[in-house]
Amino acid sequence: MSTKPGRKLHEEGVALFRKEQPEAALAKFQEALSHATNDPHHTAEIYNDLGATYKELKQYEAAYEALDESSKLFIELDDKKGQAQALGNLASVLEAEGLLEEAVDAYKQSATMLEDMGQGELAMYVWQAVSRLRMKQKQYIAAIGAYEEGVENMPEGSIKKKILGRLLRMPGSFMGGLGGAAQDEEDEDDPDSDE
């Protein structure tokens, strides 16, 4: 089991990472790792955070190694959410290195795993990363498709899903497209619709 100092160091590392201080975060994560030797789940979490930190420092080989360790541990623990998060971080490293198609594939695998676990909202953020990458590649239709995929898999009845769904239908309705008109008809038939 992880010691309290190990957890505290890990939390301090996360706080430093969020404050955009990756060098200081790296030192905290490395120290936390030495305290987590008997807790494989905590060790996997630290390796996952190390991977993200190494990516920020552009130390890509170290990032791949840390994420590989994280993935192995999450697989051994049968922790699907951890596996999906490590895969998302791997995609981020691939993207940083300019390996965009490999990054898209890894992001899609991560999103699918999250959706399969009923984590639609988390999956939405991963689909947004795919959409952003497709925009970067000037693949605009694929970018919209990825974003729609994320919205589609959000929890039913979610306010966020309704708002994003309406935003996605807006361009079609302004241009007289069938997408907006067809959805308006669906909303009229839907007793839960507030339109």
Task: Give a short account of the largest sheet.
Answer: none
| Helix and strand run | HHHHHHHHHH
Calculate the mean pLDDT score and round it.
Answer: 79
Low-confidence stretches: 170-195
Distance between the termini: 53 Å
Rg to the nearest angstrom?
A: 20 Å
Strand content: under 5%
Overall shape: it is globular
Treating each run of at least 4 consecutive H or I residues as one helix, how many helices? 10
Number of strands: 0
Which structural category do the helix and sheet elements fall into? mainly alpha
Helix content: over 70%
Give a nutshell description of this structure:
The chain contains 10 helices and no strands. The chain has helices at residues 4-18, 22-35, 40-56, 60-76, 80-96, 100-116, 120-136, 140-152, 159-174, 178-189.
Helix and strand topology:
Layout: H1 4-18, H2 22-35, H3 40-56, H4 60-76, H5 80-96, H6 100-116, H7 120-136, H8 140-152, H9 159-174, H10 178-189
Question: What does this entry look like structurally?
Answer:
The chain has 195 residues and is an all-alpha fold. It is 79% helix and 0% strand. The protein has helices at 4-18, 22-35, 40-56, 60-76, 80-96, 100-116, 120-136, 140-152, 159-174, 178-189. Helix 1 (4-18) packs antiparallel against helix 2 (22-35) and helix 9 (159-174) packs across helix 10. It is globular. The termini are far apart.
